[in-house]
Specification:
The chain has 283 residues and is of the alpha/beta class. It has helices at 8-11, 26-37, 55-65, 84-94, 113-120, 136-145, 167-173, 194-200, 213-223, 250-262, 273-279; strands spanning 16-22, 45-50, 71-76, 99-104, 107-109, 125-128, 132-134, 157-158, 189-193, 227-230, 237-239. The protein is built from eleven helices and eleven strands. A seven-stranded mixed beta sheet has the order 3-2-1-4-9-6-10, with helices on both faces. Helix 3 (55-65) links the parallel strand 2 and strand 3 (71-76). The longest helix has 13 residues, at 250-262. The protein starts with 7 loop residues before the first helix and ends with a helix.
């Protein structure tokens, strides 16, 4: 593993809490953390939102803590099925910074990822980024070699346009792309002001199992007057290939999403506030 520059955080504080969700894929999380420590602008802290991984993941995180350039926090909950909304809320409650960038632990971040999100952030809005997809064969090779650098021309990538960094076009498209669909977001690459998440009570924990937790949050944010901005051509992230998650709860979750749309809901009942009380972090 490459050791980071220990002075980087002191020279370039970002004001960012980076939340990384994970579940029982330590090989992918290893690559994700390696890409984080290579950022030209580091987050102030990294919080692993762990939805019940086994001991191997804990040991990996403990190993990284020995040389990681910023605070590395492991927020874990028991494995009771797919509970992504709950573990993300727990991580948000633990976050110390005003701006939260959220990713999945099967992403490899381009080295300007945090810098790009900091440059793109804007009061009164939240951000949904994009991802570049790795093929199964490329993913196997990357996991074996710990490769973490790609480009538009790398073989084995799809959605290649998402590998381009073009700041001018990012700003042009920010309030135009996918604006006709307020539920459209990519939960693996999002960013929010923490105070806004508190206002809408974070993720809705009535949504369990795969699907719609990010879209339902986006709808409530939109209903609360928080503008969605799509980040194209910046904050580049490479997504490792894996089998699709079982989607047995999708119809139920879709119903919860549609209810938030029809009721113009701004705040969920079962959400972030229960952990803010515990942590005495109300603002």
């Amino acid at each position: 593993m490459d050791l980071p520059n220990p002075d980087l955080k002191m020279k370039n504080p970002s004001g960012v809490s980076l939340i990384v969700s994970t579940y029982n894929w330590p090989a992918a999380l290893n690559l994700c953390l390696l890409s984080i420590q290579k950022q030209v602008l580091l987050p102030d802290e990294v919080i692993i939102a762990d939805d019940g991984s086994r001991e191997e993941t804990r040991l990996l995180i403990e190993k990284f803590k020995m040389f990681f350039p910023v605070s590395l926090v492991h927020v874990w909950q028991a494995d009771e099925g797919f509970q992504l909304s709950k573990i993300r809320n727990k991580a948000i409650a633990r976050a110390a910074q005003a701006y939260i960038v959220q990713i999945d632990g099967d992403l490899i971040l381009e080295k300007h990822f945090i810098q790009d999100h900091v440059a793109f952030r804007n009061k009164g809005s939240f951000v949904s980024g994009t991802r570049v997809l790795l093929s199964g064969d490329l993913t196997k090779m990357v996991l074996k070699t710990e490769q973490s650098e790609f480009s538009f021309f790398s073989k084995g990538l799809s959605n290649k346009s998402n590998a381009m960094r073009v700041p001018f076009f990012s700003q042009v498209l920010a309030s135009r792309y996918k604006q006709s669909d307020p539920a459209y977001v990519r939960g693996c690459n999002m960013a929010f002001w923490r105070e806004v998440l508190i206002r809408v009570n974070g993720y809705n924990e009535e949504i369990v199992g795969w699907g719609r937790e990010d879209s339902e949050l986006a709808i409530r944010l939109n209903n609360a007057g928080v503008q969605k901005r799509i980040y194209k051509f910046g904050a580049v992230a490479y997504h490792l290939h894996h089998k699709e998650t079982i989607r047995t709860q999708l119809d139920i979750n879709q119903g919860i999403l549609e209810q938030a749309i029809s009721n113009k809901t701004t705040r969920c009942e079962h959400g972030l506030d229960q952990y803010l009380i515990v942590n005495k972090l109300y603002i």
